[in-house]
Structures
1.
Amino acid sequence: MKRIALLGMPNTGKSTLFNRLTGAAARVGNWPGITVDLLAAKIPLGGNLVELIDLPGIYDLHGYSDDERVVRHFLEAQPIDLLLVAVNAVQLERQLVLPMQLAELGLPVVMAVNMIDEARKLGMSVDTERLAAGLGLPVVAISAKYGEGQAQLLTATAETLGATPPQRAEAELARARLAADDQIEARAAALLDSAVSMPRVVPEQISDRLDKLLMHNAWGLPLFFLAMLGVFAGVFWLGAPIQDLMKNGFGWFGAAALQPALAGTPELLRGFIVEGLYGGISTVAAFVPVIVLFFFFMAVVEDSGYLSRAAYLMDALMSRMGLDGRSFVMLLMGFGCNVPALMGTRVMRSRALRLLSMIVIPFSLCSARLQVFLFIIGALFAPAVAPLVLMSLYLLSFATAFITAVLFRRSEGFRSEEPFVIELPPYRLPTLRQVWMRGWLEVRHFMARASKIIVSGVVVVWLLTHLPYGVAPAGAESYAGILGHWMQPVLGPLGIDEKLTIALIFGFVAKEVVIGALAVIYGLDGNALTAHIAGSLNGVQAYSFMIFCLIYTPCLSTIATLKAESRSLRFTALALAWPLALAWTASFAFYQTATRLLGT
Amino acid sequence: MSRPLTSLAPGEEAQISKIHAAEALYHRLTALGFRSGRPIRLLRRAAFRGPLHIRIGSTDVIIRASDARCIELVAI
Ligand SMILES: Nc1nc2c(ncn2[C@@H]2O[C@H](COP(=O)(O)OP(=O)(O)O)[C@@H](O)[C@H]2O)c(=O)[nH]1
């Protein structure tokens, strides 16, 4: 099958074009030696199936960014039959160099001049025939967002593809060829003069006026926080009831259909299937609503151009932590749910910056942890101090994130070498189609890449709590109980007893099951459970337990996402070990100090 | 007389005379259209010594002050 690589500078509408050409057929491919996700899809073209691969945006074929390295590596290692290059019509003045560099590789190139709708609105005109003649390759003006020129682009691509024998990029890519680049620049400048006309004065655009308000030194930040609050509320307050609905639906199906269907089977097998396997699947499903909603909103925030403004507004603060404003947005969203927030870090193209953000995000006190804390605080603390206790946990969450960023920012692999020079696109209104596609594509990726780990984790925890055969679930004789006993020398000094340890093992699956786990462990429900916990734990123990819960290993789905997004076992292991060590230290320090001070 | 990009006042325009950046930054700046002889305008700068918002040709970019210092300007 012939293979077409889609290339272009960042913000040229490359992804939009890819989605337009491939619809929902795209899959994340596995390419040896490449640590970022590359989408690929098979599409019919001129009577044959061809594979279209979306490469990351690059500024310069000879540049030094992570993405530029990825693209060079890809072009060197993979046979490609044609390069489809997208350029932004409005910025042709500086974008012609890239297609010219690519043409030097000796591969057939087709150039799509995208955003022709915006160029027209600005009063620009682009003479595609002159460009084609000057560059010696087919040039088609398109609007990826609205579909204009799509048919012509496909025809030109099919014709070029049919006319050339297969070949491989020959030129040595890694070698910086500055002399050639200088020549290219001179040629580009001459071509631009003849083929592109720009109005002498561009009148003030709506974008300029919006920027005056949204990037204002006094109003910008309050408006930003307001916008984030809106997004947060939209995602999580809308998401919660849908999530509950799904949970109930899955629970109902399990009880009404699955249990009876397995009626004849041994109890252990039934438990394994219903609570282990099926439980794992419903855990995966529980994330679907928030991920879809999150990316609906992210599509709007990102495609509108506002995310780059957020980077501008927050940079003064975030750069001191080695992060940037976009990490801040994701960190905030992490307070709803860590999983989509981690997936959202993909907007940051520097791998180091992404990894640093990804190690920090799990410290955000997500809504699942909040449920646990509300329950424990309600059981053990007087209403007058309860809000203060909760607030202290939020502060601790910020503090651990901050400390982690500061500690890691200078270490190898987390120190971004990429210059912070970000383009600010004009404000744009995303189409419904774009928003819709984004949400569903992301959910599909999450399910494809994270569900195996999640289901296996849930199964393992089920086995731990139900084996050896015949023990009381999660009792002292179960493997979980034995593990809890073993860990006493480590967790005892934190005030965390064996039963609480079993709850922590459950909490590894998902924080919201901690309460359910306590119910199973103590064999009590509702008010009886609350009363029992209030009677058997003191405030210091409870707070130490909450500190540990807040900081230690984020839930299984978070780990699965960390692994899927980083594609690195080493990073995932670190992202697991570091919070565990920090959690232990913090709880230990608190418990030991508090018990001494209070003399309990 | 040349002066760094960081010395522009919001709304002020000048012409790039020289870019003395390390290679990675240099490449990125060139790709974004920074080249000697081109006019450049500072639109605004963020509070607390945050980044600069500048316009060069039809491209708007934000750049940290530490990076912007390597771009030298002359009056048009
Ligand atoms: N007006 C207009 N906007 C477009 C067009 N193509 C893409 N966009 C918008 O440009 C922005 C960047 O697009 P995206 O596909 O994410 O760019 P990429 O960084 O090159 O992948 C998004 O807000 C798109 O909605 C187009 O043809 N016309």
2.
Amino acid sequence: MIPAEFEYHKATSIQDAINQLGAHEDSKLLAGGHSLLPMMKLRFAEPPTLIDINGIEELRGIRLEGDTICIGAMTTENELIESEILQQHCPLLVEAARLVADPQVRNRGTIGGDVVHGDPGNDHPAVMLALDATLVLQGPGGERQQPANGFFLGTYWNDLQEHEILVELRVPVIRQGVGHGYSKLKRKTGDYAVAGSPVVVELDGDVCRDIRIALTNVAPMAIRAEAAENVLRGKVIDDALIEQAAAEVIAACDPAEDLRGDIQYKSHMAAEMARRSIRAALQQARG
Amino acid sequence: MDNAAEVQEREDSIKGVGCSRKRKEDARFVQGTGRYTDDLKLPGMLFADMVRSPYAHARIKSINKEKALALPGVHAVLTADDLKPLNLHWMPTLAGDVQAVLADEKVHFQYQEVAVVIADDRYIAADAIELVEVEYEELDVLVDPHRSMDDDAPILREDLVGKMDGAHSKRVHDNHIFNWQAGEKEATDRVFEQAEITVKQEMYYPRVHPCPMETCGCVASFDKINEHLTVHLTSQAPHVVRTVVSMLSGIPESKIRIVSPDIGGGFGNKVGIYPGYVVSIVASIVLGVPVKWVEDRMENISTTAFARDYHMTGELAADSEGRIKALRVNVLADHGAFDACADPSKFPAGLMHICTGSYDIPVAHLNVDGVYTNKAPGGVAYRCSFRVTEAVYVIERTIDVLAQKLGIDKAEIRRRNFVKAEQFPYQTCLGWELDSGDYHTALEKVLDAVDYEALRKEQQEKRAQGELMGIGLCTFTEIVGAGPSRNCDILGVGMFDSAEIRVHPTGSVMARMGTITQGQGHQTTYAQIIATELGISSDEISIEEGDTDTAPYGLGTYGSRSTPVGGAATAVAARKIRAKAQKIAAHLLEVSENDLEWEVDRFKVKGVPGQEKTMKEVAWAAYNNVPEGMEPGLEAVDYYDPPNFTYPFGIYLCVVDIDKATGETSVRRFYALDDCGTRINPMIIEGQIHGGLTEGFAVAMGQEMPFDEQGNLLGNTLMDYFVPTFVETPHWETDYTVTPSPHHPLGAKGVAESPHVGSIPCFTSAVVDAFAHLDVTHMNMPHSAYRVWQKVHELGLDQHA
Ligand SMILES: Cc1cc2nc3c(=O)[nH]c(=O)nc-3n(C[C@H](O)[C@H](O)[C@H](O)COP(=O)(O)OP(=O)(O)OC[C@H]3O[C@@H](n4cnc5c(N)ncnc54)[C@H](O)[C@@H]3O)c2cc1C
């Protein structure tokens, strides 16, 4: 329960943080610390240097730019929940943040840390997939934009490059005819998902123009259930189609068995969460 | 004001028995000024940390301390070899076995203590344990107790090979600990052979951990000059610890002081003596400075005492009307690698033979085999008197199964079998004398309160619609207040308890007991007992426990024994004081003792209004004007050896709805009626019941300590181990009846464990009931969503249209 020895540096700006990452071998950024510090206390991770990015103001805050919401990587879960911009323009993020961990963790844990950490149990990666978000990353070579779809490669493995920092997340505002749904099954307060599923649906009249069904904690990383989406896209969604999609969700799952359940249970729960989210999203899209 | 009102006012001002006085402990706890073991910081204090085994069963080939010793700030690294010359590498357990203090040549369970590092601070100690190099040779692991006595099972305890005389019985296999039986086997078997109806149900009561908020720890401080040892530790039984430490170390008890400061919950986890305590004491004696050892959460869950782990088979024989003719119970008990159960010496399966429950059962037989496996030792009572939770679980589950088989309602079958009010005191066929009870009245009260008929009707409708609703019932009898020294002792010390009360000249009181509060509110309730007996306001009565230098010897607090035993000692000691006070009052009023009568807070001369002396006046006189020949002062001690246990009971009813899609169970209603005899502080009773129900909910719905095939403990953090928060915890409805104990000085029975004991089978009863129409008779705990869903899925109830 006591981490190995490490050095601590406080970064003053994004550039300073990038420089320090370069200067200290194997160093790690410290955001909210609620994934990193537990791993260090268990000595699963022993980074020699921590670079604290909590003091960098440019990494915080939520602003609206036209049809896009820009969320600083260091914005905490509780700030997401309390944001009027999100409540109005992106209810999915608010709902998802409410179901992350417990109030203490949400006070410090950040959306950026949650997205890049790489634990398949983290909620935000799947939410970013469903929202079709864009990640703004900055490294020694400058800034680049990367779609969330394609960023997550495996457990503790993503497309973040050496000495790169996630600076901002960009998500589209919800429009007329679009609906969000989020469902997460957990054993108790403060637990990671047994299975979770954020869904975004776009309707054209009664027809599903597009749908994104993402899944949390039922594969090595957050995934899209594309076969399930294909069942529904271009159709008038009814119960029978939802059941077909649910069967595709089960087929898409590749969870690790643990105390939360075996492969069968987790896959079925993913399907159930998807069902619930699809229904909720449809209801919202229909207005 | 008329006389009656004036008397009532005085009565109220005393805040005695029956008053919902606010807890005296809370002021310091809610302000963060409680003082726990880990708060203690002594000058020059060092820290101990344990090197633990990653393997469940392995031979230790070598231990290399060099690198750890080279780390600046490390004072010592001790292994079994270092303790051997002191003969402290093994220690006796409370169950007649021995236990390795530090692993001696072999490790027997994962996380077993292999070496201890003593360092300047806990950070250095944590770094140093990583530097101790231990080479292991892995051995075959024994996880399943059903395999323990197989011919080809790996032998765990090489120290016991060939020693077939166990502490409790002959051993029939090297991995066998004991066989223990109660009742009449042949007579029982005969009834079963001839019975109209028999049922048999296997069930597993999982290994769980009490998981107190504060983990175990100690600060040992040996004063080399005065050869005096002081140990602050998280103990539910500080006096017993002093005796054991003296026996192990050779230091006279008069030079050992054990202090249990504020304790953040015990629930049985803090009864035993742990290797951490022993090595801290040894290190302090060797190094001459104080040494602190405090477990982290994972160490607490993984190594200090677990509870339960009973594989049980319950069988009932009955007539076609459901009247029980015989009970047969078989148990395979998994005790882990050392038998460190904390039970009265004579009872290796605790008070399991209370398993006839609340029922009038003519004949019964109980058979328990204890075996070794590669798991941590323990087997304590987790918020229950010794193994009573297991006993209640097996009878309550089995009677449900009988009801189901006969198609009799589960409330009705209980009505037909209850011991009747007029049968008390009732001798059970397994040897207990139930002191008092009125089960029928209590059951009807609960059924009326919840409108049982309406619930059953609703359930019918729900079932017709394919929904899962369950109604659970548990009508339990507890056995608490261990116990009469004729059948209860710990390491040979009778299980009495004690109180010492001093009334000061100005009439305030200081009292000390041999018990120790850990959330039960003794400072509040013991004062109320004395207040009523002596007519002094409980606000002027201070209660102190836990310091062996000042408190009288007692066996401590567990098994709901404080009120039945310590509370009785308190009442009797107070009565001794009142008897002396009466003599002094008679002397002051110049009348005969027999001319006086007691009224709330004073002695009055019968029939002579105005001629009276208050207890305060008498207290003053006790120090300056006592009758000739009487010694001055006003104090008394009582060591109370109870004539019998007490038998609290309760009727619990639970209604659940199950989500077929996820397996989640929602507890819609939980109604708990408790009868603990005389109620000393109703508010504290209510709090204890809420706490016990919540812990029962935790056990039934989520707690377990699963092991993989290599003996690795899975789920030893609070991420996995289920400790419910307010979010998960159901709403509790409480109720009561009062059937005083005829033999307890106050008629009180003890209550804190009833809600735990009674609620667990009630939850199982409810969950199973949701599936009862599909011929499901039992489902093992925990009733997590995952497990319940597996049943739903197996029955094909989750098919979507
Ligand atoms: C009890 C408990 C329950 C939890 N339950 C949930 C849950 O239900 N759902 C869930 O999603 N999470 C859960 N978490 C995790 C929690 O949400 C973490 O806060 C989150 O995963 C990581 O965010 P952080 O800000 O704390 O990051 P940190 O722990 O500080 O960092 C995590 C990793 O991300 C890196 N990092 C952080 N920020 C950046 C950045 N801007 N650019 C590049 N790298 C960065 C760090 O270097 C580190 O490797 C739980 C945690 C706890 C302790």
